[in-house]
Every structure is written in C-alpha cells, then in structure tokens.
Amino acid sequence: MSELNLILLGPPGAGKGTQAERLRDDFGIPHISTGDILRGQVAEGTELGRQAKRYMDAGELVPDDVIIDMITERIAEGDARDGFLLDGFPRNRQQAEALNEALGSLDRRLTSVLLIDVPDDDVVRRLAGRRVCVKNPSHIYHVDFDPPKHEGVCDQDGARLIQRDDDKEDTIRRRLEVYHSQTEPLIGYYDDAGLLRRFDGRRSPDEVHAHIRATVATLRLEETL
Ligand code: ADP
Ligand code: ADP
C-alpha cells in the first residue's frame, strides 16, 4: 500500500486535532500530536513533563532536541508504517529539517502538508471555549461551536471535560505570536517544496473534513499510480 505521511499545519485552534481524529478513522493512520504526548508526560510526572510544563504554560516552544527525538522515535513505530498525521509538529524550520532527515533515513518522504487557515480572532474564540476529555484528549469540544450532548461530559466515553491550562487569554496571545514568528514561515517552505495544500478553516468542522478527506483520497490515488 502507498504511504500517507501527512502534516497538519495551522495556528493553535485551527482545528488540527479535530480533523486529525476524523482523518485517522478515514485512512487508518495514527494521529501523532506532540501537544498530547507532552501533556501525557506532564500528567505522568516524568522528568520530560516537568521540564516541558513551564514552556507550555508560558505559551513558548519546548526546546527542539526534546521534541525531535520524541517524533523521530514515534514515526519509526509499527503503527506508523503506512503513514501518519502529524499535529503540532514541525513548528519551526529546525524541526522541519530534522523531520526530513528522519524520514530520509527510513527511506520515506512526506506526502503532503495540509494547511488549515484561520484568522487570529477566530483562534482566540475557539481556544477560549475549547474543552477536552480528561480521559482521552483527542476528544475535543467547543462550548458554542461543537458542544457535547450533555454539558461538561464527553460524548464518547462519559468522562469529564476540562479546560487546558494554556487556553487562557494571555497564553493564547503569546502562542499566536510564536505561531506567526516561528511556525508560519513553514508555509512558504513547504509551498516551495510543492507539498502544500490549503483549506479554509473558517468553515464548519464537517465541511473542512469533507474537503481534506477528498484531497487526501486523491493524493493516495496519485501515490498508487
Ligand atoms: P495548540 O495546537 O492548541 O497550540 P498543542 O497541543 O499543539 O497546542 O501544543 C501545546 C504546547 O505544547 C505548545 O504551546 C508548546 O509549548 C508545546 N509543543 C507542542 N508541540 C511542540 C513542538 N513541535 N515544538 C515545541 N513545543 C511544542
Ligand atoms: P488545534 O488542534 O488546531 O489547536 P482543535 O482541533 O483543538 O485545534 O480545535 C480548537 C477548538 O475549536 C476546539 O474547541 C474545537 O471544538 C473548535 N473547532 C474545531 N474546528 C472548528 C471549526 N471548523 N469551526 C468552529 N470551531 C471549531
């Protein structure tokens, strides 16, 4: 089978996690979120989690070496053999180059970079109303735009919904600055490489999903030809 090695790019709150969960089911490839992995380490109280937490709480990037090792190991695991959906990585040029190297050493390459575009004002509204499942952080809701059936309770496994520590107004503003200065330049980088596909993230989750799914299905078809 052809590989689907995909990156979901976009500002915080663009809907990367929301779409990754749907695409994971459509295409049977793992959703690899650096934010979820880091929050897992924080919850477990590991040394890595302890170090990462202060950067995350401040809305700053966790140092590259930690993140790059984490992802290099993760994409080499068995369940990512046929592809993966990277969410939250790469976030700067160094990480993008390290990913190319890691893929090259596995004799693989990127299939496509899916950019979900959303203006800053929407980001602030989305992050302020985001709620995630305490048991499985990939279950994502919004108090107004994508509410659970029962307030404060995850539809999928009945667990409590919580607000992330970094979804506070000040931290949101800082995360947006970091996105514009460090991550946004990757749009040009991947466009120059002929890998970028753009999606209008202001549309509803279902519409964004339909667009991305159709594009990825076409990409897969092209890979097999
Ligand atoms: P969001 O998509 O809402 O911005 P994430 O869950 O992707 O949030 O990331 C939360 C935090 O985890 C980031 O603000 C940053 O501190 C850290 N983080 C996640 N991915 C990376 C990465 N690739 N490089 C450095 N830090 C990261
Ligand atoms: P990211 O992973 O890019 O940080 P999320 O998938 O966590 O973004 O989505 C951020 C918030 O916005 C969540 O509360 C989610 O329910 C909501 N959301 C996601 N996609 C949309 C959309 N297309 N329209 C409105 N709200 C959305």
How would you describe the overall organization of this protein?
- The chain is α/β, with parallel strands linked by helices and 225 residues long.
- It has a single domain, classed as Rossmann fold.
- Helices cover 50% and strands 15% of the residues.
- It contains 9 helices and 8 strands.
- Strands 2-3-1-4-8 form a 5-stranded parallel beta sheet, sandwiched between helices. A 3-stranded antiparallel beta sheet has the order 6-5-7.
- A hairpin with a 6-residue loop joins strand 5 and strand 6.
- Helix 4 runs parallel beside helix 5.
- It is globular and about 45 Å long.
- Bound molecules: adenosine-5'-diphosphate (2 copies).
- One adenosine-5'-diphosphate binds next to helix 1, strand 6 and helix 9.
Tell me the distance between the termini. Answer: 11 Å
Could you say how many structural domains there are in total?
1
Rg calc: 17 Å
Provide the β-strand percentage band.
Answer: 15-25%
Total beta strands: 8
Shape designation:
globular
Main pleated-sheet profile: 5 strands, parallel
CATH class: Alpha Beta
CATH topology assignment: Rossmann fold
What is the N-to-C order of secondary-structure elements (H for helix, E for strand)? Answer: EHEHHHEHEHEEEHHEH
Helix content: 40-55%
CATH 4th-level superfamily: P-loop containing nucleotide triphosphate hydrolases
Enumerate the distinct ligands: adenosine-5'-diphosphate
The strand order across the widest sheet is 2-3-1-4-8
Would you identify the regions where 5 or more consecutive residues have pLDDT less than 50? none
Average pLDDT for all residues: 95
Architecture per CATH nomenclature, i.e. the level-2 architecture: 3-Layer(aba) Sandwich
The SS-based structural class is: alpha/beta
What count of helical segments does DSSP give?
Answer: 9
